[in-house]
Amino acid sequence: MAEVITITGNVKFPITLDPSVWIFDDRKLKMPDALENRNETQPDLPQAPPSSVPLQWERELQDRNIPSLKSEKLFVEKKDISGDYGMKLGPFLGNAQPSEEAKEVICHLQQGEPVSIPLEQAKDAILLFALDGQPIRGEEGPVHLFLADGTNRDNPIKGIYKFEVL
Fold this sequence. Notes:
- By secondary structure, the protein is an alpha+beta fold.
- It has helices at residues 33-36, 52-62, 69-78, 90-96, 119-123; strands spanning 5-9, 15-17, 29-30, 85-88, 104-109, 115-118, 126-131, 134-135, 144-146, 157-158, 160-165.
- Helix content is 22%, strand content 26%.
- Strands 3, 4, 7, 8, 9 and 10 form a six-stranded antiparallel sheet that branches. A five-stranded mixed sheet has the order 2-1-11-5-6.
- The longest helix is centred in the middle third of the chain and has 11 residues, at 52-62.
């Protein structure tokens, strides 16, 4: 039973991923919305003009509106983390820096034969890591891989313990 996943092979930096902590990551995606909205662009969020940022900072300092570590911890404890969540695989592959010759990713499974997918397709994949707010454990964990094109939506790749870039 794997708790972590490694990215190895034809990469500059082999890395280890711990999906059990992704529930606290701001990059997590709510499932199944992440699969349904893959081709929609995210709206641009309005940003404060650069000249008003220092003024806002000064105002918060004067008003003592600074969250303490204790209040931040309390907020995290009360935060609703129920539901199914996923994380994009692409940024992790990018951090590993596959070589220019790399063309595919082999998903090594806890049970069954390894599954090969093209590197470009793997970069767009989503890793489901939490069901009802809880990490996926056992033979089907720690992640389920969903392809961006939706071809394996009803049958994701489960029980991955290693991504090998070739």
